[in-house]
Amino acid sequence: DSTISFLERYINAYDLITMNDVLEHIPKQETVKLLKAANGAVRPGGRLILNVPHISGLTSIFCRYNDFTHETIFTEMSLKQVLFSAGLYNVKFIKQRLSFKWTPRHLAYRMMRLLWYCILKLIYTIENPGEKHPSSFQARLVVSISRDGH
Q: Residue 97's pLDDT is what?
C-alpha cells in the first residue's frame, strides 16, 4: 500500500504526525493528496509537523541536487501555497535556533551566515523592489500545523 492509502484508513487516529525529510521526495502531483490524508489522520486538536529543506539556505542547492530522489525543494511561500492547496491554514513556521558558542569556527560560521543573508536580502530587493523577500534564510523549514485551529 501507499502512504496515502494507509493514512486514509486511519481517520482521526493520531495526535501527532511528523514528516521529517519526506515532502521533498513526493512527486508534485501527489503532494496535496498526501497532505490532505495526513491532516485527516490527525485528531482534532492534534498537529502535523513538517521539516523540509529550504531553498534559501546557504547550502540548499547542494542539498537539492545531492540526493537524486529529491523531487522539489521549498521556500516559505511555496510551502504555504501547497499547504493552503491541501486545506491546511493553521500554519506556524518555527525558526531555527542555533546554540551560541564562542569557538573561532562557530563565530566565523555566524559571520559568514550573516554576510550571506545580507547579500541575499540585497539581491532580492534589487531584483524585486517592493516584493516580499524570504523572512528566513535558514537551511530548513519547520512547520507546525494545528488541526481545527487548536
A: 73
